[in-house]
């Protein structure tokens, strides 16, 4: 049975069309393996091959009572989104967690304060201590509304509380969140401004919303809420990033790493729920 249902209305373009969509919330299940792995590949982009995604997916599915998937066609269909948390201390010897810890330390070298903080959190000594670090992983298809995110975070917080009541190892002191962003070139920004300038008034308001995008922006609007509670935020280039020339198509993507204390988790959920309330 689904954890919960939610509904969404979509705008199909030039004409407003109301589409009722039932989003069903499920626990992660083995049937989700390939879909979750694809979403992880989308999250880590060109660096996915560095991070043992098969093993990481297996690890996510090994804790079916923690985390959420969202589907629209029953429990046997592919999830369109997922959210979970992994204990980096408990799984410190797992190949995917070891690879991610090394990856985070490598990327954080550009930010001295963050690098120093991650060295403390992810050092072999700390990963054997009682100061546990939770790795939050979340991704969704690009057309999924941000309004599905607050319920997933709320359910995750509830599940962590229940797990701790059963003496399960989810007593985190800090969380690391991975996200992804895109960068627009000066030429792309100018092209968007020109499109808005020349558009008929009937389309101008919609284009003006697009113009609110910055040269650097996240695929995950909820990052704005996470950044409010974060101790550190770092935008980084992918290791396997290919140089982008003026004739290239597609967005220039990058990664984002955020660290926040567990004491602000409920504050984060409250802010997300208010910021991305259903229409």
Automatic annotation (TrEMBL):
Residues 203-213 have a biased composition (Basic residues). One of its GO terms (cellular component) is nucleus. Involved in nuclear export, actin cytoskeleton organization and vesicular transport. Residues 193-218 are annotated as: Disordered. It is found in: Nucleus. InterPro entries: BCP1_family. GO terms for biological process: protein transport. Belongs to the BCP1 family. It comes from the Eukaryota. The keyword Transport applies. The keyword Transport applies. PANTHER family: BRCA2 AND CDKN1A INTERACTING PROTEIN, BRCA2 AND CDKN1A-INTERACTING PROTEIN. This is Protein BCP1. Keywords: Nucleus, Protein transport, Transport.
């Amino acid at each position: 049975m689904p954890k919960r249902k939610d509904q969404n209305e979509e705008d199909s373009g030039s004409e407003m069309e109301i589409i009722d969509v039932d989003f069903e919330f499920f626990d992660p299940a083995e049937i989700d393996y390939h879909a979750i792995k694809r979403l992880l590949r989308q999250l880590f982009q060109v660096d996915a091959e560095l991070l043992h995604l098969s093993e990481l997916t297996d690890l996510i599915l090994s804790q079916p009572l923690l985390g959420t998937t969202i589907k629209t066609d029953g429990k046997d269909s592919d999830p369109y989104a997922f959210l979970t948390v992994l204990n980096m201390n408990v799984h410190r010897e797992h190949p995917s967690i070891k690879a991610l810890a090394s990856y985070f330390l490598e990327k954080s070298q550009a930010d001295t304060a963050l690098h120093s903080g991650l060295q403390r959190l992810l050092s072999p000594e700390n990963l054997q201590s009682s100061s546990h670090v939770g790795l939050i992983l979340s991704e969704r298809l690009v057309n999924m509304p941000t309004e599905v995110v607050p319920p997933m975070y709320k359910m995750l917080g509830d599940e962590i509380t229940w797990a701790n009541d059963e003496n399960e190892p989810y007593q985190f002191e800090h969380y690391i969140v991975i996200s992804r962003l895109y960068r627009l070139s000066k030429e792309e920004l100018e092209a968007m401004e020109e499109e808005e300038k020349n558009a008929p008034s009937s389309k101008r308001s919609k284009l003006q919303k697009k113009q609110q995008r910055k040269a650097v922006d996240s695929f995950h609007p909820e990052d704005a809420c996470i950044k409010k509670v974060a101790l550190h935020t770092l935008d980084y280039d992918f290791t396997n990033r290919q140089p982008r020339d003026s004739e290239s198509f597609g967005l220039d993507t990058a990664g984002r790493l955020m660290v926040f204390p567990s004491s602000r988790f409920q504050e984060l959920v409250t802010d997300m729920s208010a910021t991305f309330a259903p229409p």
